[in-house]
Protein: Diaminopimelate epimerase
Amino acid sequence: MMRSAVITWAPMSTLAFAKYEGLGNDFVLIDNRHTPEPVLSAAQAVAVCDRHRGVGADGVIFLLEARDADFQMRIFNSDGSEAQMCGNGIRCLAHYARTLGIEPTADRYRVQTGAGVLDIDLLPDGQVRVDMGAPALLAGEIPTTLAPADQKVIAAPLNVAGSDWSVTCVSMGNPHAVIFVPDLEAIDLERIGPLFEHERHFPERINTHFVRVLSPTHLQVKVWERGAGATLACGTGACAVLVAAVLNHLAQEEATVELPGGPLQIRWDSESNHLLMTGPARTVFEGTLQLPPLGSSSTR
Ligand SMILES: N[C@@H](CCC[C@H](N)C(=O)O)C(=O)O
Structure:
């Protein structure tokens, strides 16, 4: 018997967004002050980040109300997983907050993140400086099983894809593995990146950075991000790279971290033990998302 197909079109709701980028690490930003949880589900964030059928982005960032800060940041990676922190994203969010009429105090915002409350300074030249807090170095804090939980992971041996690597792990709220190599051209990121991300010693997966030391104040990086793949820049990663370089006696406490999308200035302040990251953030365009109602199945 022939059946006739019934197509029901769910009514669309709309949601305003702004697209921003920091060194080519790009985000869809959403003013989420009206509800305590992100207005998009993880699956909707994946759809929005899709570079063919969505807006296209490395992640979706929500600006929410905060009790003890100017506002709160939450971020979904392009695969829908939630991360604790995003260095490039928080610079973008600071500029976005200003367009929403949230006024900083003496050009400074205090922002609640999964890595604690961070101070963000809007500099006169348009750049943004973020106090990224202190790095966490113990294996249990990363987390990784490459060492006992109460020990640091500095130049630990790890075999991935049949090769031996020397891995230093740093958490900036989110987990990073840093590997110093003599030649970045030799790194096939699309092949090796996912193998590190899902390696069994990293129970919450890992952001991976391959680093060539150009000088003690100049580090060049290739980035594979947890939940987003190869990106043009990673702010938390740039901080982790500087920390790892200092711990391996390869860099000074202040350096330029050269990412595929451009440079970040990173300083590890010896007095506070905090990382200070300075870099740009830029608005690209604004728009309106067409969304099926939450909880509805696809209308296609
Ligand atoms: N690109 C970001 C980091 C985003 C989160 C990361 N992929 C994770 O899952 O931890 C940055 O600039 O720091």
